[in-house]
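Format notes (please read before filing issues)

Several people have asked whether sequences and structure tokens are stored in separate files. They are not. Every record keeps both together, in the order shown below: the sequence lines, then the token lines. Line labels are part of the format and must not be stripped during preprocessing.
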Amino acid sequence: MKKLYPEIEPYNTGFLKVDDVHQVYYEESGNPKGKPVVFLHGGPGFGASPRDRRFFDPDKYRIIIFDQRGCGRSKPLGGLENNTTQHLMNDIEQLREELKIDKWTVFGGSWGSSLALAYVQEHSDKTEVLIIRSIFTLREWEFDWYFKEGVNRIYPEYWQRLVSKLDSDKNVLKDLAEIVLGNDSQAAEKVLLPFDAIFMATCDINSDEIVKENHDINDFIYHSYRVFFHYFVNQGFLKEDGLLNNAKELKDVPLIMIHGRGDMVCPLGGAFDIQQALPHSELVILSEVGHTAHHEKMVDAIIKQTDKLVS
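Then the structure lines:
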């Protein structure tokens, strides 16, 4: 079974000034002359981590990672002005041009898979291969699964703690967004504590200690969730069913999808629909795996694919 590559440090870091508001942090690691791959982190809102470098053979890949607008090390943290999916897609292109890369492999997971699909649909000529895991197609049924009818039946006790902080359970996403994106940070913390417990549990980061809500919503987590709800209350700033309807734009791009059958955040149906629209694509379904990229079977599946591209 494949394991993560050893820890490495970037050989180049910087900030890309993408407009008068935002500076996007980026880094390069691995082999400067290797196969370029850009890593699109999930969330939205939570930024990349040093662990993300380790899905790629550092001797063979030029690994490019960046924190999306308002996320991680990018400035300003939590900035929502000029922050939409189209802005992020433009940032990816600006970064590619800044680094003088003609074509690259695009990798994304969870929300990063949504962004990757959107980007490659517009820039298929700049993409050698698209690899996505834990696919999220930003369709209404996926939002309903998480915020209306689905997760509430799997985690009823967590859900009860959350909706007890709201006026009702009729429009949880809209109500949460209104509070978190409002000006009262204390009110936001009251709803983010139980929501964060649900989010971590469904992402397979569950533990009895976490769901007791004995952790804090620090400034970083607060601003990360502001970006999260900014995007999701606006359904990713894309047209309804846009990622699926525009899948035909990927007909000439090799597409590899990896998905856990037990994914509670992004159910398998989204990946399956993309595969049906693009018969040339490969869909790897992992049993006993949920949403996290940390599961040993998910790590194994990802690295088998990234290794194959440079073998």
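For reference, the curators noted about this record: Residues 12-138+238-308 form a domain with the Rossmann fold fold (CATH 3.40.50.1820). The beta strands are 12-17, 23-30, 35-40, 61-66, 104-109, 127-133, 255-260, 282-286.
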